[in-house]
Design brief:
The chain has 150 residues and is α/β, with parallel strands linked by helices. The protein has 4 helices and 6 strands, in the order βαβαβαβαββ. Helix 3 packs across helix 4.
């Protein structure tokens, strides 16, 4: 299984958490990352997006064909996100557009078996792969990239 975690791009402050839109900088970050992902994500990737406005806008830079998933809204748990993705049992690839600290908690849990959290920059992607190897399943980090690196 492939799991791509994409943190929403830069968003405005001052509104309710669910209504915060992307800033001009955020739109540029989202477009840059979407352009990078478009040619790399596998065909048939299932895309799950938080209902928050900033995540919806980030995902729209990539495609209009995604599922809004309430289970990955702001302040959800790593368990809820992994359950929504059907990790590790889903076939193929799942792309999640979500929030900190949950995305960082998922990365720490899957890579380090830790309850800590990794810092994930706004607009960045962390791509994880789970494969069976000699009877064991292993999770590996395939890619980490932020919009300013593109």
């Amino acid at each position: 299984m492939e799991l791509i975690l994409w943190r929403h791009a830069d968003a405005a402050d001052g509104l309710s958490d669910m209504e915060r839109p992307l800033t001009d900088k955020g739109w540029k970050q989202a477009e840059r990352m979407a352009s990078f992902l478009r040619s790399r994500i596998p065909h048939g990737t299932r895309i799950l997006v938080s209902p928050a406005k900033r995540t919806q806008q980030t995902a729209h830079a990539l495609t209009k064909h995604f599922t809004t998933e309430p289970a990955i809204a702001p302040n959800t748990s790593a368990n809820a996100l992994l359950h929504a993705a059907n990790w590790p049992d889903a076939d193929g690839c799942v792309l999640i557009v979500g929030h900190q600290p949950t995305l960082g908690e998922v990365v720490a849990r899957l890579l380090c078996n830790s309850k800590d959290s990794f810092s994930i920059k706004k607009g960045a992607v962390w791509w994880l792969t789970r494969r069976a190897h000699e009877g064991d399943c292993q999770t590996s980090l395939r890619l980490v990239i932020a919009p300013d690196q593109l």
